[in-house]
Each structure stands twice: as structure tokens, then as C-alpha cells.
Specification:
556 residues; alpha+beta; 8-stranded antiparallel beta sheet; 5-stranded antiparallel beta sheet; 16 helices; 26 strands; 35% helix; elongated
Length: 556
């Protein structure tokens, strides 16, 4: 017994081998930690790979929003993940606004037209050592990425002049600008042919009004004299095209604007959309080449506001002795410009326009003349950027689709007053107007016609159309062949014979026959006057000025 106790005391006092025992215990811990480190390293590496795949899938989906899910799935499988790893593809609206929290910039479902895609992936990473602690053979990794499309286009809305009448354009354009013009048809043709870049023009405008280091937004939201705007157009024309006939013609307009103090907001002329925060002079890849005449015409329409344009014109048409015009151009819808730069969903509008045309028609027999008052109201036409299809890798296969709705036309033969012309809140409902006055016998007339459709027509612009600045016309689907013919088809005549007057047999038929004989010339009068005001009769012209196809970019 004593021997056993002695051995125990010696064993307790002997410290040899402790380090080996502790080393054995620590080795087990080290091996375990190393195993966990291997698993964690695998998880982090796989997360990076999964995130990269999610990023690529989001970019591809945003580049092909009409087929986003299939495009994202193809990207996932090409990166050696099963298609089932793609948990979700959401389309939505992304707003690049630093004032909005990053997590709130992407909204789904989309507000309006989708411009972004958010992709979510779920993948599994096998566990080698950690499964002894977690009880699971794999670890689930979930990643997401959001990308927005950068496919953009610039486009404009208005009306082309099919044929030029120098006197008519001088009278109408000069009146809208608040001056008198005396340019020739050749001058106007040169202005139509001359092209300048819209952003170069804005830079010249900033220089003209002594604004330096400001953003486009600051420039576009200010009030600027129309004379300075025309002078900036001249400076841009000179810098772009040199001293030619268009420069001379524009210089003449600039000189005629001396003393005109009317101001407009340049933003009602050009909207640079997502580039508003750029400093004036910085040029994005999206260009906008505009006709100098179109620019001057758009400035004139906006500058006129709701003021009346009153003038007389002689178009030299058969059966028509004289034409007097009273016109008003309303405000464009809020937020609309003549030229728009942006992504799918942005719109431009024409201005609501009213025209009262007093036409003196040459008669025959007892009716030597007929004084025909025709009132025409054209509501705002709209063009919306419906799609930007970027050809990759061949940019020449790109195209832009614009949805176009011409303004509804409302026309009367009746007693519309000048006061009716400026009240855009109410449509005129005129009484009959006296069109023939033979002293003791008068003939009053009343007619009404309307045309228009509210369904947009998609118009496609190829890359060559865009490069050439081709203008395309959309006509309302129920636009009749002749507005005048439609009015005359609804014409109601009232013949009033005074106490001492004697009826004239067949007077109503005579008046109707005279008017039917000048249907085509009257249509030409209306079309020419409205086209000079930048709109068409039951028609609207659109043209795409530029396209940008940088694909899509990741966003926060």
C-alpha cells in the first residue's frame, strides 16, 4: 500500500509529457479550424463567382428587357449553373437620383415603362468539415444584381413643309417671332438643309448669355430672350457649316430680331433628359442633329405663346381671291419639349393650335363672292419613344420605334369670334355665319366635322433613317380625303330674304356648287397654314435625331 501511494506521488510530481498532451489537443482544434477555413474560403469564392454571374445576368436582362428572363437564364447556364439557380427576374423602373436611398431607386413593378432588371440567384456550396457542426452538407448562397438599360434616343415632333411659299412663311413666322421677315424660298430651303448639333447650340447659348460652369438644367430652366436664342443658332451655324447661304439667311433673321424682348424657357425647346446634370459643354454619346429652320420654327411657335397671329396671304390658288388668317398657338403640354433625349417611355408633343381662316371665294352669277369662315382646331399630337433596339455587334442593325398619335382635328364653318380663339379651356360652339350678303338676301352657313384617332401608330426608324434625319408622317386612320369636303358634306344653309327682297331660285344650290368647285384649293390653304405653324392637318411628323447603344450598366 505504501508503495502504491509512493508511485502516485511521483506521478503527480512528474511534469514530463504535458506539452505533448496539450499539443495533441491543440492539434485537433487547429485541424478543425483549418477545415472550417477551407469551407469558409470555398463559400467566399463561390459567392464572388455567383455575384459575378448575377451581375452578368442582370446586364444581359436589362439589355434585352422584352426577353429578360430567357436572356438571364442563358447567361446563368453559360456560367455552368443550372437554370434552376435563377430564382427571379424582376423588371422595374430605376431612377438615378442621389437624393433617393440606393435601396429605393429600383421600383417593381415598373412605373410606366420598365428600364431596368433585377436578377436573384440561389446556389449551393458543398461543406466538407463544417457539416459536422451544421448538420448540413451544403450552404445556400443568394445574390442579386440590378442593371438599367442605357439604350437611348433623341427625337422630335412637328411638321415638314412640303412646298414653300416665301410670302406665307415670312408672314406667319415673322408674326410669331414679333418681327417682319423678307426671306426668299431659296433662303428657307437653305435653312431647311442646314444641320447643327443641339448640344453645340446650347453651349453657344450659354456663351451668348454669359453663363459659365453651369449645368444644362440651369441653362434650360432660365428665361432667355428669343433674340439671344436665334443669335446662338447663328453662332452654331457659322461654326458648323461656315459662311454659306443658310448663314446669310439666319443672319438676316437675327438682325430682324433686334429689339425683340420676348423670352422663353429653353427647356420647352430641348429636353436633355438624363444629361441635365452635365456641365454645359460636356457632350454625351447621344447626339441630336437638327435643321436650322426646324429650330427657328420651334422657337417661333413657343415664343408666340397664346398671342394671336393676324395676317393676309395670297397663295395664288384658283377660285380664291383673298385669305385672311387669325391663328393662336397654345402652350405645349407641361414638361414637353420639341426635342427630347431619353430612354424608352419619354414623350414629346405638338402645341394645340387654332386657326380661323376667312376665305374670299370667287363666285358666279348673282353671287360674285362668298366669304367663307373656316375654324380649325388641332389638338396636341404625341410621339412616345416605345423601343430602342440596339444591334450588337453590328450597330447598323439598330432601330428605334416611336408611337405616334396625330392631334384630333375639330373644324367648323360658322361664326367663331377672336375671343373664342384664345380661350383654350372651352371649345367653340359657333352660330351660323353669313357667307353671302346680297343686301336684301343673305345666306348663312353652319357645318361641323371632326377627325382623329387615339390609338398610337408605331413607326420604325432604321439606323440609316436616323443618320439621314428622315422624317416620317403618321396620318389618322379615319382621316378623310378632304377636310373641306367633310365640312361641305355637313353644310347647312339658311337663306334669309328681307321684307322687300325677292327670292332667287336655286340660290342654295348655286352657293353649294361654287364651294364644291374650290374644295381642293381650300384644303391647300388649310394645310399650308397649319404646316407653317408646325403641324399637319390630321397628320404629325416625327424624326429620330440620334441613338445611343452602350448596353446596360450595373446600378446600386
Amino acid at each position: 500500500m505504501a508503495a502504491i501511494l509512493m508511485l502516485l506521488r511521483r506521478f503527480r510530481a512528474d511534469h514530463r509529457g504535458n506539452f505533448a498532451i496539450m499539443s495533441a489537443g491543440l492539434m485537433t482544434l487547429v485541424i478543425g479550424c483549418a477545415g472550417l477555413a477551407v469551407d469558409l474560403g470555398t463559400i467566399f469564392a463561390d459567392r464572388r463567382k455567383t455575384q459575378s454571374t448575377a451581375d452578368l445576368a442582370a446586364i444581359v436582362a436589362a439589355s434585352n428587357l422584352t426577353n429578360a428572363t430567357n436572356a438571364a437564364t442563358a447567361t446563368v447556364t453559360q456560367n455552368n449553373y443550372p437554370a434552376s439557380a435563377l430564382v427571379n427576374v424582376q423588371l422595374g423602373t430605376y431612377t438615378a437620383n442621389p437624393a433617393v436611398a440606393p435601396q429605393s431607386r429600383f421600383v417593381t413593378p415598373a412605373i410606366g415603362t420598365a428600364n431596368a432588371a433585377q436578377v436573384t440567384l440561389n446556389t449551393k456550396t458543398p461543406l466538407y468539415f463544417a457539416r459536422y457542426f451544421t448538420g448540413s452538407n451544403s450552404y445556400t448562397i443568394q445574390t442579386s444584381a440590378t442593371a438599367t438599360s442605357t439604350a437611348m434616343a433623341s427625337f422630335a415632333i412637328g411638321s415638314r413643309l412640303l412646298s414653300l411659299n416665301g410670302g406665307l412663311v415670312n408672314a406667319m413666322l415673322g408674326s410669331m417671332l414679333g418681327t417682319t421677315l423678307s426671306l426668299s424660298v431659296m433662303d428657307y430651303n437653305s435653312l431647311i438643309s442646314a444641320k447643327i448639333d443641339a448640344l453645340d447650340f446650347l453651349s453657344a447659348l450659354a456663351t451668348r448669355i454669359n453663363l459659365t460652369g453651369v449645368t444644362y438644367d440651369t441653362l434650360l430652366t432660365g428665361n432667355v430672350k428669343v433674340s439671344d436664342i436665334i443669335a446662338a443658332a447663328l453662332a452654331t451655324q457659322q461654326a458648323t457649316n461656315g459662311a454659306n447661304s443658310a448663314t446669310t439667311a439666319l443672319s438676316t433673321i437675327t438682325q430682324a430680331m433686334t429689339g425683340v424682348t420676348t423670352k422663353i424657357t429653353p427647356g420647352s425647346l430641348i429636353d436633355v433628359g438624363p444629361f441635365a446634370d452635365l456641365t454645359v459643354g460636356q457632350k454625351p454619346k447621344l447626339g441630336a442633329s437638327v435643321s436650322v429652320f426646324d429650330l427657328v420654327s420651334a422657337v417661333a411657335q413657343i415664343a408666340n405663346g397664346s398671342h394671336q397671329i393676324a395676317t393676309s396671304v395670297n397663295l395664288g390658288l384658283p377660285g380664291i381671291a383673298n385669305v385672311s388668317v387669325l391663328a393662336t398657338v397654345g402652350e405645349r403640354p407641361v414638361g414637353s419639349s420639341w426635342v427630347e433625349m431619353g430612354k424608352q417611355g419619354v414623350s414629346v408633343h405638338t402645341a394645340q393650335t387654332r386657326l380661323l381662316v376667312s376665305i374670299q371665294v370667287l363666285g358666279s352669277g348673282p353671287v360674285s363672292t362668298i366669304n367663307l369662315p373656316i375654324y380649325v382646331e388641332v389638338a396636341s399630337g404625341t410621339a412616345t419613344l416605345n423601343a430602342v433596339s440596339c444591334g450588337r455587334p453590328n450597330i447598323n442593325t439598330s432601330q428605334v420605334t416611336v408611337g405616334v398619335t396625330p392631334g384630333i382635328v375639330d373644324a367648323w364653318i360658322g361664326g367663331v369670334t377672336p375671343a373664342d380663339m384664345t380661350n383654350f379651356t372651352t371649345k367653340p360652339n359657333p352660330p351660323p355665319a353669313t357667307i353671302v350678303n346680297l343686301g336684301l338676301i343673305t345666306v348663312a352657313a353652319l357645318a361641323h366635322a371632326g377627325m382623329g384617332n387615339t390609338t398610337p401608330t408605331n413607326v420604325n426608324f432604321s439606323y440609316s433613317d436616323i443618320q439621314s434625319g428622315v422624317k416620317k408622317t403618321v396620318t389618322t386612320t379615319n382621316f378623310l380625303s378632304s377636310l373641306t369636303g367633310s365640312l361641305l358634306g355637313d353644310l347647312s344653309l339658311t337663306i334669309n330674304v328681307g321684307p322687300l327682297g325677292l327670292p332667287i331660285p336655286g340660290l342654295g344650290g348655286l352657293v353649294t356648287g361654287i364651294l364644291n368647285g374650290v374644295t381642293s384649293p381650300i384644303d391647300q390653304v388649310l394645310a399650308s397654314l397649319l404646316a407653317t405653324l408646325g403641324i399637319g392637318l390630321g397628320q404629325v411628323d416625327v424624326w429620330v435625331l440620334g441613338i445611343r447603344c452602350d448596353g446596360a450598366v450595373l446600378v446600386n
